[in-house]
Every structure is written in C-alpha cells, then in structure tokens.
Amino acid sequence: MWRLAAALLVLAGLPLRSAAADQCKCGCCEVSKRTPAMQMNNLKFMCSPHPVQVSDSAEECPEQCRPEGGQVTFADLVGVVAYNRYCLSACWPNREQIGWTCSDVDATMAAKMAKNDFEDPAMTWTPDVVKIPEELAATAPEPEADQSQEADEADMQKALSNLGNGDGGNGGGPDPNAGLMVAKAAGKRAQAAAMDARAAKAEALSMAVVQNSSRALKGSFLRAKATTNAKAQLAAAAVRAAMYAKAAESSVKLAEKEVNEMLAVPDEAAAIAVKEALKVLKAKTRRWKYEEGETQKRIVPPKPALGLPATEVGQKYAAPYWAAMQNAMASRSAFEAKARGENDQAHALQESATQLAAQAAALQSAGMLGHAQTAMKRARGMLAEAKSVQEAADNDFIVAQRINTGLPGYQAGAELATAFGSEKSRKLWMPPPIPAASGASPAPAAA
Q1: Helix 178-298 crosses helix 312-365 at what angle (to 10 degrees)?
Q2: Whether 396 contacts 340, CB under 8 Å
Q3: Using CA atoms, how far apart are residues 414 and 320, in angstroms rounded to an integer?
Q4: What is the Cα–Cα distance from 414 to 298, expressed in whole angstroms?
Q5: Among 129, 241, 272, 360, which residue carries the largest CB count within 10 Å?
Q6: Sign of torsion over alpha carbons 192, 194, 197, 201
Q7: 8 Å CB contact between 124 and 109
Q8: Which tens digits make up the pLDDT trace of 348-358?
C-alpha cells in the first residue's frame, strides 16, 4: 500500500518538473571527441552539452530539457530528456572540430533512426569509399610473352612431327636439322618456363608492393586525419585559452577595484567619524548653553519681605544657607569651566585627526603607503584620545548640572530661615509704645 502511495506522489510531482524544463535546442551542444567504444563508421566526433560556463556571455543551459513535438522518442514519462542524451541523438556536428557548433539532424537521417529505432545518428552514416590511386591499380599482362611462347611451342611440335615422319622436308630420310630444332625448341621452352616463373614472381612482388602501398596510403590518410584533429584541438584550446585569459583579466580588474575600495574604507570611515563627532559636540554645546541659561533664570536673588524687613537675627539664621549656596555655585562654575576646556581640547584633537586623515589619503594616492599608514594610525590615536577627553567633559558637565539643580533648594532654605529668625526675634523684643497726646509719661514696656 505504501508503495502505491509513493508512486502516486512521484507521478503527482512529475508535471511540475516537465513544466519547469526548457525546450531542447542544439545551441546548448558542441562538438566533442568520441571515445573508442563509441566510434563507428569512421566517425570520431559527436555532440555533447556545453562544459561549465566560463564567461558571462556564454549561454546558460540546464541539465534537462523538453524536446519539441516528440523529437526524441526515448524521453521519460513527462517528455523530459537529459541534455547529454539529446545532444548525442538529435544533433549533428557542423564541422569535425572540437568545440564547434551543432545543428539538428536532417530529415533523412531522422527517418532512418526512427525506422530502425537507433539512438545514435552515426549508426545511419555510410562511410566514404577510399579509391586506390591509378598508379597503384593492377594492369593486364602484356601479350608478347604469351605469343612468343606459343610460337616456340608450334616450332617444337613441327620439328617433332618432321623427325617422326622421316621425310625431313626433302623427300627422303630423316632431316639432320630436326634434332637441332628440337633442342632449340626445348631450350626456348625452358626459357619460356623460366620467364613465366620470373613473371609470376614479379607479379607476386607487385601484389606485395600494392598491398604495402595501400597500407602506407591508409596510414598516411590516418596520420593526416590525426594531424587535422590535432590542429582542431589546438585551435579549440587556443579559443578556450583566450576565453580563460579574458576571464582572468576581468577577475584581476575586479580584484583591483575591490582592493582599492577596501583601502579607501578606513579613510571614509575616519572622515565620517570626525563629521559625526563634530556634529555631536556642536549639539552638546548648544544644549549646555541652553541649560545654563535656564538655570540662571531659575536662580533669582531673594525678594525682600513686604511690610516688615528682615531682622538681624533672621539674617544670621539664613547665613549658613547663603554660604552653602555660594560654595555650590563656585563648584558648579569650576566643573563647567573644566568641561568647556575638555570640550575645546576634544574639538582640537578631532580637527587635527581630520587633517591627518586628509594627509594620509594624499600620501596613499601618491603611492607612499608606509607614510599613509603611519599618518592614519596617528589620526586614529587622536580620535581615541578625543573620545576619552569628550567623555571626561560629559562627566564634569553632568556634575555641574547636578550642583546647579540643587541651588534653588539653598535659596528656598535661606528665605525660610530668614523669615523664621525675624519672626522669632520680634517676639522676644517689642518697641516702646507711642506717647499719648495729653503729655502723660509713657508706660513701661512689657517684659
């Protein structure tokens, strides 16, 4: 049951893969060398997929494709075929040169493949017939030797018949020249046999020479073809070497650009840091001035009481508060002065760091990398010192702000002490009454 479910899941995912595959095209194939096991009908080249992409201009091709109109009949269930199979079966080299382009097989070859269920178009290829040169072709034997041999045979038969008849051609007795003629005929016959033997030997030698010449011609043809293939391979290697050299040149330029960008990063970072630090300092200075003004507005001198003035006792009661307030104001002024001095020092250090960073950039542009690195190191040290001084200035300003925040409390305490002492002193001593109009003596003051 689980096998059936797995098969259904696989079949459900197949249409997605078919829809995602691109249409097959021989433009994604190139000419390559056949292995010895794949060589047939004197064909040593075939089409195979492009190798790994070596440049941005090369065409991108997937590992699988979808043939158009059933062009490749051995695709899988959803009509998707691997590109190495498609290039071998549906494409044909335009030239016997490695790395050359391929095109679709012609209709005649495709029909033969479909009829015989072939997967390799090389199986339908008819090799060219090698013609033997005319100078190596076998020639018919000359008829002169055969005619002389037949004439000698006729003379010998004639001499034998004359010797057997005994008429000698003169009308009586054996011919005395018949034996001589027979001997001559036998000698000529032996010479003819020797000539036949030499002719047979010469013919055998000629056949051997023809065979050797044929083998030499075939070897020369193979060597010439191998030389052509080697030239083609060298040409393809030269093309690929040029592509690799171009890619390497582009990589070198890109690397130089990235190195220059990395070298410029510290200068740019230093300049940005200086600008940000100056911006922060100006903002803090403005805030300090604003807060100091607001604090000065809150600190007002004590208002005299309406009606009864402060007594001497009240002023004595308020004296400690006013003294403490004066000490706090002096401390605040000291911390603020210190913070301003540190702020000015940090600002000067940052300005010097900016100038040093500009000098380092100029030295780097002039090729003096050692001096540029030294100047940039000093600029970074000044920025670090400016940061430390600025932190100290911030801390001193915070202390001054805390002291400033407590000043209104001292003022309020002094006013309350003045009022309390004045009221208490008035209760302890009363002024004498105003004299009466009748001129009576004044009454004693109440104790």
Answers
A1: 160
A2: no
A3: 8
A4: 15
A5: 360
A6: negative
A7: yes
A8: 888 888 888 88
Which residues span the domain enclosing 367?
299-428
* Two structure tokens written together for 383: 């920025």
Examine residue 356 and state whether it is found in any structural domain, yes or no: yes
Are residues 303 and 421 part of one domain?
yes
Tokens of 134: 């005319």
By the 10 Å C-beta count (0-12 exposed, 13-18 middle, 19+ buried), 160 is classed as: middle
Question: Rounded to an integer, what distance in angstroms lies between the CA atom of residue 147 and that of residue 292?
Answer: 147
Closest CA relative to residue 239, chosen from 130, 337, 100, 133:
100
Residues 154 and 227 grouped into a single domain: yes
The number of beta carbons lying within 10 Å of the beta carbon of residue 122 is 19
Which residues, in sequence order, are bridge partners of residue 64? Answer: 82
Task: State phi, psi for 256 to the nearest 5 degrees.
Answer: -60, -40
Q: Is residue 250 part of a domain?
A: yes
Ramachandran region, residue 430 (left: φ > 0; alpha: ψ -120 to 50; beta: rest)? beta
pLDDT single digits (tens) 223-279: 777 777 777 888 888 888 888 888 878 878 887 777 677 666 666 666 777 677 777
Cα Rg, the chain, nearest whole Å: 62
Quote the CA–CA distance of 405 and 411 in Å, as a whole number.
Answer: 12
Q: Identity (one letter) of the amino acid at 158? A: K
List the helix and strand counts (H, then E) for the chain. Answer: 7, 7
